[in-house]
Fold this sequence. Notes:
The structure holds two protein chains of two kinds. By secondary structure, chain A is α+β, with helices and mostly antiparallel strands. Chain A has helices at residues 2-15, 20-41, 50-65, 95-106, 157-164, 167-180, and strands spanning 80-84, 111-118, 123-132, 135-143, 148-155. A five-stranded antiparallel β-sheet of chain A has the order 1-5-4-3-2, with helices on both faces. Chain B is of the alpha+beta class. In chain B, 34% of the residues lie in helices and 29% in strands. Chain B is built from six helices and seven strands; from the N terminus they run αβααβαββββααβ. Chain B has helices at 2-30, 54-61, 69-78, 103-109, 164-170, 184-188, and strands at 46-53, 83-90, 114-122, 127-136, 139-149, 152-159, 191-192. In chain B, strand 3 and strand 4 form a beta hairpin. Chain B is globular. At the A-B interface, helix 4, strand 2 and helix 5 of A face strand 1 and helix 2 of B. Strand 2 of chain A pairs antiparallel with strand 1 of chain B, so a sheet runs across the interface.
Amino acid sequence: MRVWATIALVFLTTLAPPASVASVAADDDFSAVVKLIERFYHVKHQSLPLLARAGIKAVRTAARIRGGEYRRIAEVGSARIAFFEDELFDSRGQMVTFKGSVQTTLASRWSGLVQTLAPKDEEQTYIYIRDAREKFKVLVITIGKHDATVVEATVTPEVLADLIKNPEGMGKAITDEVATSDP
Amino acid sequence: MNRLFQTSVKLLPILLFVSGAAISTRAQVAKLQLDQLDALASRASETVDVKLDEHLLQTTARFFSSKDPDDAEIRELIKNIKGIYVKSFTFEKENEYSSGDIESVASQLRAEGWSKIVGVTSKKDGQNIDVYLLTVGDHVDGLAVISLEPKELTVVNIVGPIDLEKLTELEGSFGVPTFTLSTPKAKADKTIK
């Protein structure tokens, strides 16, 4: 009886994923999307460009000149970013297929919020969202003819409320901020 | 009397289940299946797809400031809304889509409960805007807008209690395009079916 109980326990322990697995899997979705872009477009991502890092100064200075205050969108330390620069993003008429692959990669843990496709200009934007306790994780994928960015950031519901008023501008707001924030 | 009471008590869970299922079914009917429109994406020069579900709307609704009049209005507006879904396709040339392409949506709007409340046709611009409401009893459970232009097709589906007046207040926000349905002048310029 004891043997069976031990076997059952081992079996259940092996089968039951630890509580953190779901969150680890969701975190890996960022990497999965980056790899998907690399595979589909035969490109390689890079680290944060120096030019972008310098941008934060300009954003903050501009805000100060306007008399306003620089308001942070992403929670400090929550952002991840992958850049693809000076590459050729040619979907060869298969942009809809790529959209399907993004959906397949993220559908189980993320909800699609905004998707915009402009095949002629090779431009795509995808914004996915998921709960992160009292906050939200936002994943923004922006692909242009020669550049692409994948950003994952945690935002508060207050910030999200502000952003969803203009869902189409939301991706740019988050990407711009994360791309120009201190690494 | 006692027997009747006992029977009622026994039936209560069933009644609750049935009424819950009915509410859920109503929400499902109000939410149109728009995925079949995705086939148009391969022909379109630009596609926009916005999905704001109930959880997201309600979680963020309470963070719209009650001090800012615009935010307070939005907060009140989306308080009971269960979803906002927008699909828009822009084409390079005219007639790149046909009425058959939107039949999957049109057929859902022919179902019981849905009725066309506004039909605007502009011969000059070749624009057709139809607004449908889903009513159950005296409740409005959903709204749909189909806007057809020679080079553009837009479908908006709002799930929950909403009327035309509220729709016009949502125009320009949450991915809902501006249909200019609100201005009497714009209406006067067009032929109302």
